[in-house]
Specification:
alpha/beta; Rossmann fold; two-stranded antiparallel ribbon; 5 helices; about 45% helix; about 15% strand; globular
Length: about 160
Amino acid sequence: MARRIFYSFHYIPDSSRAGQVRNMGVVEGNQPATDNDWETVKKGGDAAIQRWIDGQLDGKSCAVVLIGANTAGRKWINYEIKTAWDSGKGLVGVHVHRLKDLDQNQSSQGTNPFDDFKVGEKKLSSIVQAHNPPYYDSKDVYAHIKSNLATWIEDAITIRGQY
């Protein structure tokens, strides 16, 4: 049975990279918002965005943070990380900067978004894994993520169960 997953990512620069991961078919992910839907949600302000995120996280067993060049430190990414962790969901990061976007560009590696959080005295980044595929070629990166994502998710759920 495929796990139900929430994907967290920096929308504008990484949506095509996120789409590649979602379309791998390895796990069942949340449905992406269309540009029009997202604009409607944003018009409702912070409370509407928070409700939308909460609704998307509901019923999911793990949050997968797709880490691009500027993912770390973003307000709503941080909210998604904190909410997922606080609600007992598995949490894992996957660096996607080497997947090519729609313009066939790769980006630079972003910092670990889990560095900004603590669990007791420990940095969340020392608990939650952030996987960085060891390849430069986009096709190899894609294949590596596809062949490992389900295991990374199961590991994240196991790790979360220990805290």
